[in-house]
Amino acid sequence: MNIILLGPPGAGKGTQARILVEGRNMVQLSTGDMLREARTSGTEMGKIVADVMDRGDLVTDEIVIGLIREKLAGGDAGGGFIFDGFPRTLAQADALGALLDDLGQTLDAVIEMRVDDDVLVGRITARSTCGACGEVYNDQTKPIPADGKCSNCGGTEFKRRADDNEDSLRTRLMAYYKQTSPLIGYYYAKGALTSVDGLGEIDDVAAAVAKALD
Ligand code: AMP
């Protein structure tokens, strides 16, 4: 089963993807994570995308489609792929359809995670992740444990993303509404879309996602 998690920054796509990876042995393909990795390892592509990402704009379709093409060609699909943060434009959506066709694979569900814009700003400016395993924390709703150790792996280093600030978030939200939200209609028309309320507790949202998939 291959699925897309669709929603604005802070909707909880990464958190839900991690739950699906653990519970269903699915493979998370996050273009945001791939681009951050390229930056950390200092590749040419990482240098090209750094400014664009810090501003909160989208990097080119060519770059992200290339990243996904590589992963699809080389990777073990396990229980299926979770596309997290991809596609973000209509051109990317068309390209994903073609790539899956070429591999004889299907896109089985697109889950739209709906969240109020006001909530997004609060979530994003409060979030951090474990530097070792990527577990997501939130100062208000899921604080880092009092002993300073990640509840998932025991790691003690936590990071905040450079683009998780209010200025960059405004740009990211604008990019979402201008370039990504048309995908809701696109996948609805293809009969693939299910919308879930992304506002609740993590477990409740996970249950709604599971219901949509089963
Ligand atoms: P994310 O971790 O999904 O929030 O992505 C972080 C940043 O990486 C975005 O603000 C964009 O600059 C870039 N990015 C990630 N995925 C894509 C994509 N599919 N298309 C264009 N830019 C992307």
Detail the topology: elements first, then pairings.
Blueprint: E1 3-6, H1 13-24, E2 27-30, H2 31-40, H3 44-55, H4 61-74, E3 81-84, H5 90-102, E4 109-114, H6 117-125, E5 127-130, E6 136-138, E7 158-159, H7 166-180, H8 182-189, E8 193-197, H9 202-213
Parallel strand pairs: 1-3, 1-4, 2-3, 4-8
Antiparallel strand pairs: 5-6, 5-7
Helix pairs in contact: 1-9, 2-3, 4-5
The structure holds adenosine monophosphate (AMP).
Adenosine monophosphate binds next to helix 2 and helix 3.
Assign a percent range to the helix content: 40-55%
- Biggest sheet statistics: 5 strands, parallel
Radius of gyration: 17 Å
Order of H and E elements? EHEHHHEHEHEEEHHEH
In quaternary terms, these chains amount to single chain
Instruction: Tell me the overall shape.
Output: globular
Class from secondary-structure proportions: alpha/beta
- Give the helix tally: 9
Return residue spans where pLDDT drops below 50 for at least 5 consecutive residues: none
Gist?
By secondary structure, this protein is an alpha/beta fold. The protein has helices at residues 13-24, 31-40, 44-55, 61-74, 90-102, 117-125, 166-180, 182-189, 202-213; strands at 3-6, 27-30, 81-84, 109-114, 127-130, 136-138, 158-159, 193-197. The protein has nine helices and eight strands.
